[in-house]
Amino acid sequence: MENRFLLRLSLAAALLAQSAGAAAGTIEGTVAFPGLFVPSMTVYAAEVDTSKVRTVLLARGQSSFTVDVPPGRYVIFLAPNEPGAPDIYGAFTQYSRCAPRDVDGKCEDHSLITLAMTARGARSTVSIDDWYLTDDVVEQINRIRGAAAGGAGRFNSQPLGAPRFSEYPSAPFEGSAAPKIDFNGGEFSDADRASIQQSLSEGPNFAGHVTAVLAGCGTACARLVLVDWMNGRLQTPAAVAEIRGKLPCREEDAVLFRRDSRLLSVTRLRDAAVVTQYYVWNQGNAALLPSGEYQRTPQAFCAVAAR
Q1: How far apart are CA 154 and CA 200, in angstroms?
Q2: What is the model's pLDDT at position 158?
Q3: What CATH fold (topology level) applies to the domain 24-149?
Q4: CA dist., res. 274 & res. 247, Å (int)
Q5: Please, how many CA atoms are within 13 Å of residue 51, restricted to the half-sphere of its CB?
Q6: Given Cys at both, which of 31, 53, 54, 301 links 45, Cβ 3.0 to 4.6 Å?
């Protein structure tokens, strides 16, 4: 398979991932934002001992969240990611525990609270209501976010706050026979048909039971083709019908997806910017639904490849 795609994970790997997820604990939280509206935000659950960071994207107006985590010690904070929102952090701190009982204004400790998730199925509840962090705590959070952004691997190079493949797991697919495809006349060239058939011979590579492949749509143009192994349906989603031009670097990252995830990303040029659009496969109606869009300068996009 072309190196622009993620390597297809085996069924055993998908089952192992599900097993690991079953052993996770859950952090449940509520958000009290100090403004008139609650912007789109990203929740960060940072493991203290390993520096691993798990994120959850909150939609505009959403004030509750859950994060599934393996055993470990975690600090929890969030940051608005909506254009024009205040550039501030909120966090679960000693102030969060003190403030509900404060009657004389003595809640002045804004240090991050470390949550210990030690048992399978453990649950912890947090409130993100401290938006008045000290410079030392802000610097601590900056270091955590910087370490997460600088991690190795092309799939850690997504913008902070962007959806992560691990956040949209898909169930393993038990089918074995490749679906029979009706190409509906002359929509696809002979080369495209051969490419699609070859991809089908290698099994599903997206969302558990879908084969995704790029077909041509003219000079320097590709379109995404999806084949659903459940029903043999072939579709070319309109949102990604034309992927034109070449990225200034990291050309293999133009289209990314995994067999064990329902998330798919498309990165392309828009005027002078590099734009990454995220889509989630909805099993209910067998369609790609937009999940978010992030824009960077070519310099910022290519800086990841230079690390």
Answers
A1: 25
A2: 55
A3: Immunoglobulin-like (2.60.40)
A4: 8
A5: 12
A6: 54
